[in-house]
């Protein structure tokens, strides 16, 4: 493709920045550069829309659903929450998840209610629940893997009921082969708090993520081209802009020079059902390996939308497909470090985001990472070209 054949009428001879990927990483940096530095930005994405994995849209039945699986916003960072609040109002929402275990639906993270329901107990206090868990836990001296974390906290039976099967399906690996950070995401509770997250700020963008992105990117200095793959213009990148910000997979940027970094993918089966409600909470997890999917999500719980029909999504983990999850294990980190060293030695390209930094980060962490990246760029620019 000719370097400029795809740019909009009236575009500048050269942009200040070409940003690859219109997810949180690329969009936040585009917004900051345009609004704070007066920079001209061209933002591209190979998908036909902005928003990255957080993209939502209405389906044929008019139900707002998340095309790439359920995205629930939560953060402890006031800075991140305040930043996003410029582009959206919020719907208060505290996420609840039930797990389908031994034919029952019980709270996950495991809490006192889970123990009482599953084992027919009558634990009344935090102390009693803590004592019960301590009697089952198998202390692991040096916690390294995702198996160690759970066995150390709750013992083998609960590990097998809630974590082993789910993790084997989700990652195609046994928890003993995965870094501890994966299952450490899920706490164990001795109280009856049945919220999935404990963060200070928990809310959903009132009109959805896509609307929030559209407002973030609605700036005269930002041009957006969706449906454009960076591969088509890589050779001309520095004719288009002085600086490149890349939020795609880092191994792809370097033509897989050291081999492919493993990413886990998912297939989404979205279904609209002729009933008002399908399940009692937004997400039900299915840790049992008898079924191939990991969880079912029902969006109306997240969005508060009312309608006589409802839309749900089954998630089927897969080795093939879009790269959704970096896989945290030591050998993958080693390989990433090789690519990271190349990235550090590459002038005029900034790597940011979940795929480019190969980190299992939530949305708020990516917003935080993008804001910090912008601040560093801004400081450097201020020294070079004070405004
Ligand atoms: P992405 O959103 O992946 O955006 C990268 C963009 O770059 C993509 O749109 C891609 O098309 C584009 N791109 C890549 N390569 C190229 C190329 N060569 N040319 C052009 N464009 C390219 N986080 C939460 O906080 N809460 C949740 O509940 C939650 N649920 C999740 C559920 C699922 C199933 C998944 C997969 C993730 C979930 N996350 C959740 C994580 C969240 O999706 C990420 O933290 C966030 O979207 C990362 O933003 P990003 O901009 O780094 O990457
Ligand atoms: N997990 C599990 N059982 C559950 C929930 C989570 O084994 O019921 C494990 C699994 O390995 C999963 C990880 O904990 O991949 C992190 O769960 P989370 O819900 O944070 O995953 P995400 O929403 O990022 O897919």
Automatic annotation (TrEMBL):
Enzyme class: isomerase
Requisite cofactors: FAD
UDP-galactopyranose mutase C-terminal domain ranges (all copies): 162-360
Pfam families with a match to the protein in the record: GLF, NAD_binding_8
Ranges that cross the membrane: none
Domain of life: Bacteria
Keyword Repeat belongs to the record: no
Coiled-coil region(s): none
Keywords: FAD, Flavoprotein, Isomerase, Plasmid
Keyword hit for Repeat: no
Family: Belongs to the UDP-galactopyranose/dTDP-fucopyranose mutase family.
Name listed for the protein in its UniProt record: UDP-galactopyranose mutase
């Amino acid at each position: 493709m000719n370097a400029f054949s795809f740019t909009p009428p009236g575009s500048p001879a050269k942009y200040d920045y070409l940003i690859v990927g219109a997810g949180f990483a690329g969009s936040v940096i585009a917004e900051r550069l345009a609004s704070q530095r007066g920079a001209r930005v061209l933002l591209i994405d190979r998908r036909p829309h902005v928003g990255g994995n957080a993209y939502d849209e209405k389906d044929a039945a008019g139900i707002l659903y998340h095309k790439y699986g359920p995205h629930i916003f939560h953060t402890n960072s006031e800075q991140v929450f305040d930043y996003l609040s410029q582009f959206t109002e919020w719907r208060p929402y505290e996420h609840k998840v039930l797990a389908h275990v031994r034919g029952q639906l019980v709270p996950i993270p495991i809490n006192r209610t889970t123990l009482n329901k599953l084992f027919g107990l009558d634990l009344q206090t935090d102390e009693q629940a803590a004592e019960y868990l301590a009697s089952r836990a198998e202390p692991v001296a040096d916690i390294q893997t995702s198996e160690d974390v759970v066995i150390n906290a709750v013992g083998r039976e609960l590990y097998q009921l809630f974590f082993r099967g789910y993790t084997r399906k989700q990652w195609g690996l046994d928890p003993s082969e995965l870094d501890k950070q994966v299952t450490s995401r899920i706490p164990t509770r001795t109280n009856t708090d049945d919220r999935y997250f404990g963060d200070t700020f928990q809310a959903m963008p009132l009109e959805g993520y896509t609307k929030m992105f559209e407002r973030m990117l609605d700036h005269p200095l930002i041009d957006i081209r969706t449906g454009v793959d960076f591969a088509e213009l890589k050779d001309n990148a520095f004719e288009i802009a002085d600086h490149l910000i890349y939020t795609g997979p880092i191994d792809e940027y370097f033509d897989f020079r050291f081999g492919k970094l493993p990413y886990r993918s998912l297939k989404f089966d979205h279904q609209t059902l002729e009933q008002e409600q399908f399940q009692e909470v937004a997400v039900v997890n299915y840790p049992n390996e008898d079924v191939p999917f990991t969880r079912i999500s029902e969006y109306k719980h997240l969005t508060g939308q009312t309608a006589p029909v409802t839309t749900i999504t089954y998630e089927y983990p897969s080795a093939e497909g879009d790269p959704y999850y970096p896989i945290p294990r030591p050998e993958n980190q080693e390989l990433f470090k090789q690519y990271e060293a190349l990235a550090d030695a590459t002038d005029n390209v900034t790597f940011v985001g979940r795929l480019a930094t190969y980190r299992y980060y939530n949305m708020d962490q990516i917003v935080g990472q993008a804001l910090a990246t912008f601040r560093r760029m801004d400081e450097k620019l201020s020294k070079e070209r004070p405004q």
